[in-house]
């Protein structure tokens, strides 16, 4: 079939189970969970979850053709099935990049496609800029670059679109603590007293979930700690935000030349309130070689229909491009 007539898939692949999984000790304190699924001899791709602190899920394997890709999914330090859950010591962006490189070597992978959304897009770029020789390409979604204005938007700016959710978020704190939402949430989230950190974790998690989709969805009410995962998400997220995501001011603009020769796709929901399009637009302008797709009817979540379709189209386009002599732009329904 001619290339121009090749249909590109627009929905997730069927559920699959890992063919291998394990725990990798990355230092004296942290051990990370990893798994591989799909084709053991396939093209390696690594899925980078968001948050920071969110952890991975079985659905994340389904963005990739399992006959073609060797799919690597792992939980970052302190997240998901990694231990200790919610641990903040030695939990920095530099450490996460080093963990990825240790995992790559442990699995014997020469290089991999980096697939990440939200905080995962930050980590994908951080790894790619540190190890451009190990990156074969980028598929990024809901761009977040860890800059102070982005953090301030999360804490305060989202109230312009979701005032009810923000009132609940701010209202969890006593009135005298609301002038420093991040500092006082962080103080509560790291407190050893569960009567302080559990309600704070539920309030933080509810706020983020309420703002993440274009249309309201049925979501867990976070009335429990969900095995500690809600606490890990909110605690690690606040830790990174309080420390400026451990990235230098002005990152990554001066270094993008190290990766611009690699294939890249940037997928952004037009109505993404958690990570507004202004950052994705700036990245696309600084990286004009990358394919930039704005999904007109989507918010932040990777599982919204339009975002889902764009991401699967991107992985399919990368698959098809590996058998051609040159990359070609993926086709999307809204490009017609």
TrEMBL record:
Domain called AB hydrolase-1: residue spans: 44-304
UniProt-recorded Gene Ontology molecular function terms: aminopeptidase activity
Matches recorded under Pfam families: Abhydrolase_1
Reaction(s) catalysed (UniProt annotation): Release of N-terminal proline from a peptide
Main localisation: cytoplasm
Enzyme class, broadest EC rank: hydrolase
EC identifiers of the protein: 3.4.11.5
Localization in the cell: Cytoplasm
Tree of life domain: Bacteria
Protein keywords: Aminopeptidase, Cytoplasm, Hydrolase, Protease
Entry's family note: Belongs to the peptidase S33 family.
Protein name in the entry: Proline iminopeptidase
Native species: Reyranella humidisoli
